[in-house]
Amino acid sequence: MAEPRIIVVGAGPAGTRAAEAVVKAGIRPIVIDEGRRDGGQIYRRQPDNFSRPYEKLYGTEASRAKALHDSFDALKGQIDYRPETLVWNIAGGQVWTANGHVQETLTYDALILCTGATDRLMPVKGWNLAGTYSLGGSQVALKSQAVSIGHEVVFMGSGPLLYLVASQYAEAGAKVVAVLDTSPAGARIKALPDLMALPSVLWNGIKLTRALKKAGVPVHHQITPVEIIGDAGSGVKGVRFRKASGAERTIGCDAVAVGYHLRPETQLADLARCEFAFDPGTHQWLPRRDADGRATTQGVYLAGDGAKILGARSAEASGKLAALAALCDLGLPVDGGEMTALRRDVATYAKFARGLAKAFPWPAQQAAALPDEAIVCRCETVSAGNLRAVMRETGAIEANRAKAFSRVGMGRCQGRYCGLAAAEIIAAEAKIPVEQVGRLRGQAPVKPLPIAIGEEG
Amino acid sequence: MSGRFVRLGETERPPVTLHVDGQPVTALEGDTLMVALLSAVGTLRSSEFGDGRRAGFCLMGACQDCWVWTELGDRLRACSTLAASGQRILTSQPEPTWPNLG
Predict the structure, then answer these.
(1) CATH assignment at residue A428
(2) Given CB atoms, is A383 within the 8 Å cutoff of chain B?
(3) Chain B within 8 Å of A146 (Cβ-Cβ)?
(4) Of A55, A173, A189, A356, which is most buried with the most CB atoms under 10 A?
(5) In total, how many domains does chain B have?
(6) A316 CB near a chain B CB, below 8 Å?
(7) What is the per-residue pLDDT across A424-435, written as a single tens digit (0 to 9) for each?
(8) Whether residue A288 sits in one domain with residue A214
(9) Min CA distance, A198 vs chain B (Å)?
(10) Is the ipTM above a cut-off of 0.90?
(11) How far apart are the C-alpha atoms of A396 and A432, rounded to whole Å?
């Protein structure tokens, strides 16, 4: 019998551990990754000619990052590794890839999607100004290029990344003007029972907050973002926000990093026709999967933050678990005890992730309060007022219908940065629960392709 | 305008020289095009929809806000393209755009 073809999409923590499990079973998987190097976003590797040590790049996660990179390096001769390659469609039982101008289709017996996450964004007036970056983007600048996104940086939003990146910037010598957190400090107390699922990770988080204080960085809790101010030509000049007391304040800066935790990249699962379900804890639509990562589409497996935001540690466990499930379904022998242990690990990480969602809640209420002139879609400069007017004119209250009429979600990012907020705006305007708005369908190509793409000649 | 990004280390790399809107810009080997440009200038492109200049957003190839152009007209995603000596980059779209707001 021919060796089954297993394709792993993504070479971050989930993809690396999935590929490793497949190799261990004696099969050579195809590993397709958009990055120039492995590691994903969280353990993104700096270019070859950079010299900062692991401790400096990854802090408390240095040994995990190194272990993951070493594992991937050890796999290199045993996998068909395709870096800088985009999977832009899944259709007809085939994976469609693009590398530069070369396109290829691949069939598979098992497809393990480890597609990772991007920042989750809530628009604020002025976020289209040059100098506004996603929180994750600001971390990429530092981690993979050793630069700060500006001379004076404000970090705004919520989630564990807010404190992590702000403290990494301060430690690297960047000027951090302030950390503005939308979540109330009290939420963290309520989340404690869940956060205690991983005491060492919780402790790392507490240490970050203390380090910021020690570095003299002002941290404001329970703020409401009002506006990123600046001008259309030269970009950001400051941030206006409302303090918990109700008083408004303006802080000068030339860069803002904004983010509200993460959202999974689910377009490929969608194109593979996996069923989705609404997750009320995070207000996100997620592909359905069983405890081992089996999607509702046969032969498709989901792991890591691309399936649900559970963090990098969980991604390593769920990546391996999904690969073992795939091997098992292909009739290969797997260690049942190992799968049980991995399921238990993932359950612990899931409890911690529930705690994070409670401690740093998605500020859905901001969508209703967003002024009409605020841009919702940065790609095509569609304002909240445009979206609301389209709803009034057409009665569109379903995500894809509202997109068709307003173009919110139709631009070059394909709704990655506006889709979740647009759904909240529609829900608030129509006075319906956000799950009734539905979700934006994934469309191929999931990212822009060059017009001159073709088969290899 | 002076640069938007600030280098915090790793500055002992060999230089590369590229041209941005006709002006020579010195960057470092291993820089992405985005870092090479924004270490020297403030923005990367203009929004086609009339709301001003842009300087990228996500830095991970997801938002497509950092497109720049070569003088030959090829479009490059600045956050995922490496800077190289001899590149001739434009921060204005060479083909016509369709501003729809005025």
Answers:
(1) 1.10.10.1100
(2) no
(3) yes
(4) A356
(5) 1
(6) no
(7) 999 999 999 999
(8) no
(9) 29
(10) yes
(11) 12
